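Hi W., the NAP complex you wanted:
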Amino acid sequence: MKTLLWATLSANGNYAQSGPGNPPKPEALADFAAQAAAAGNFIAGRRTFEAMRGNGGAGGPFAALDIVVVSRNAGELPGATVVRSPEEALAYLAERGHETALIGGGAEIHNAFLGAGLADEAVFNVAPVLEGKGLNLLIDTEHYACKQVRLLDCKPLGGGVVQLRYGIERE
Ligand SMILES: NC(=O)c1ccc[n+]([C@@H]2O[C@H](COP(=O)([O-])OP(=O)(O)OC[C@H]3O[C@@H](n4cnc5c(N)ncnc54)[C@H](OP(=O)(O)O)[C@@H]3O)[C@@H](O)[C@H]2O)c1
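Structure:
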């Protein structure tokens, strides 16, 4: 199964965070909805899923999708299937017949997939915002590491958001 890691980055290269003072760009949100609809699913960390649910975002256009929440501790979460690891999330979606898994974030989940070498492509939407101290997207959260990736596509999405798509070779 192909795994597609989807993330919004800030213009200064941080892993973009959203909140009341910095709502997600509508163009980036619309792109996530389109990518999730195309995949028929998305995988989220427990904190991101709970934030989406708090904003009423896990229903609506996402109601028909297979939503998989990765958590070490959570019990049942309405509207989602809870699994204990990135590998289990992919096994669940493969068993359900999905050909692509969309990894929607947040940072800890993205870094877990990247660290385990489980991403085949990365879609980065660079938003026109500069951030201070925050979150990072990392292939190794403890040591310096570096991996070449292949630029597959680059296009503006409107509203100052630019989409970069990269191919990632698995080891
Ligand atoms: N830039 C973007 O594209 C984007 C996308 C989504 C969210 N965000 C931002 O990201 C932030 C939230 O991200 P976050 O890093 O705090 O949280 P997160 O990745 O959404 O969720 C973290 C939780 O996932 C579970 N988890 C993480 N790694 C795991 C593993 N290897 N195995 C099993 N479970 C694991 C744990 O859940 P338990 O504690 O339940 O065990 C952990 O507390 C917010 O600021 C949000 O705005 C940004």
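The mean pLDDT is 94.

W.
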